[in-house]
Design a protein that fits this description.
The chain has two domains: 208 residues, P-loop containing nucleotide triphosphate hydrolases (Rossmann fold, 3-Layer(aba) Sandwich); 194 residues, Nucleotidyltransferase, domain 5. The strands form three sheets. Strands 3-4-5-2-6-7-1-8 form an eight-stranded mixed sheet, with helices on both faces. Strands 9, 10, 11, 12, 13, 14, 15 and 18 form an eight-stranded mixed sheet that branches. Helix content is 36%, strand content 23%. A hairpin with a 6-residue loop joins β10 and β11. The protein is built from 15 helices and 18 strands. By secondary structure, the protein is an alpha/beta fold.
């Protein structure tokens, strides 16, 4: 693309944005305060890269945690800044085509499978802290491989989750660029406005949203403090399997998204969480085979109430399918989500977690939080539905379906009986 055409860009970057554009490497992690302008930066990086790309049929992507977020946050920017260079805009596919054949498409990490099978020359993952970590490792990274595409992870901290871990890795990897941009140093927000924000917000919330603190508690999280207490008290450690005690499983059954399973043993008042498994795009046979691959001897398999709903295609419920595969599951009675969350809060102080085997499940519990209402400026009563919901919902069924302390369950379902 001739430089004269590039000068037609409508984008005038701020100082820190301009610095970022010149310092980017193949892989990049940008930690930015609220109102930094990260989405505008990301969209224009995609447009500029698309125009400069010399490969055949260049393909670029912008990914938000939810597809509806991508449309609400980035689509108007993509149309506006891409206007001088686009030859087509497809609203139904959230895609623009540029004059040199490059294509930029918006996606949602709530459906990572939409990215499978495609190739990419560059991608932006916006608010990566809200995404499933495997979106990068299992889906996005392979899509970049054959064309050596680039990636930008960008967002605001939400505790020490996958985004934090990625940022820490980028800081010590010379092949990655890591940047942190705090409101106190960028000058994007005037000092008087920052002071007003500081006095009107909780200190931890302000530190997270405007000073890019990963140490601040995850705002709106249901179980963050209790999980921190578990770590301090040494209850996140190596938890061995006890062969003489039945293993209870609790499931969140996904249809078009992930299925999550917790494995626990109850020893007196202790609830030992010994394992966790999660996958997506698999049939129930896959999960039964996974249970069978373990040496565990099983007790109850706790399922959500909708496991009894019959599917139109087969005429069978998932309860019936699991029974046909050799399990004898128990359906947990339907209760309000709020009651289930309270049940989890009562259960967590009794729990010991295997830190290695339950690592992903613990991240899900730590990231499970209330939904924020931007227009109202407050937290909604309901939980946010994202990648963390699957593990958190499965744990909620465990809390509601677990027998009282002292109850001894028979060893009913040995693993070798699952066929």
């Amino acid at each position: 693309m001739p430089s004269s055409d590039m000068r037609r860009m409508l984008y005038v970057p701020r100082r820190h944005q301009a610095e970022i554009h010149t310092q980017l490497k193949r892989f990049n992690v940008l930690v930015c305060h609220r109102r930094f302008g990260k989405t505008v930066l990301a969209v224009n990086q995609l447009i500029g890269s698309g125009l400069r790309c010399r490969k055949a049929a260049p393909r670029f992507a912008y990914v938000a945690p939810l597809l509806k977020q991508a449309k609400a946050v980035a689509w108007d920017f993509l149309l506006r800044y891409g206007a001088p260079f686009r030859v087509a805009a497809n609203t139904s596919e959230l895609r623009i085509d540029l004059i040199n054949g490059a294509r930029i498409t918006l996606y949602g990490a709530d459906n990572p499978d939409a990215l499978r099978g495609i190739y990419l020359d560059g991608i932006v993952l916006d608010e990566y802290a809200d995404m499933q970590p495997r979106t990068w490792t299992e889906v996005v990274r392979p899509a970049l491989s054959d064309r050596k595409g680039w990636a930008i992870f960008i967002g605001t901290p939400k505790g020490q989750n996958g985004f934090y871990e990625l940022y820490e890795q980028a800081r010590v990897n010379k092949d990655w660029y890591a940047g942190m941009f705090k409101a106190s140093t960028t000058g994007v927000i005037e000092p008087a406005e920052l002071e007003s924000l500081r006095t009107s917000m909780a200190s931890e919330e302000y530190a997270q949203e405007f000073e890019c603190s990963f140490q601040a508690a995850n705002a709106g999280a249901y179980y963050g403090k209790m999980l921190s207490d578990a770590e301090v008290e040494g209850r996140v450690a190596r938890v061995p399997w006890e062969p003489t005690v039945p293993v209870i499983t609790a499931w969140d059954l996904g249809m078009d998204d992930a299925t999550a399973i917790w494995f626990c043993q109850q020893v007196g008042r202790e609830v030992r969480i010994i394992d966790y498994y999660e996958a997506s795009g698999e049939g129930l046979t896959h999960y039964v085979n996974h249970l069978r691959s373990k040496p565990y001897v099983y007790g109850d398999h706790l399922l959500p109430h909708d496991a009894n709903v019959k599917e139109l295609g087969t005429g069978l419920s998932r309860m019936e399918v699991l029974q046909s595969l050799g399990l004898n599951p128990v359906v947990v009675s339907q209760q309000r989500v709020e009651d289930g969350i309270n049940a989890v809060r009562l259960l967590l102080p009794r729990c010991w977690f295997d830190g290695e085997k339950c690592a992903r499940g613990l991240k899900a519990l730590g990231q499970y939080r209330r939904e924020w209402a931007d227009k109202l400026g407050t937290w909604r009563a309901r939980p946010r539905h994202d990648w963390a919901s699957h593990g958190a919902d499965a744990f909620r069924y465990l809390a509601m379906g677990l027998k009282p302390p002292g109850f001894t369950a028979p060893l009913k379902y040995p693993s070798q009986s699952i066929v």
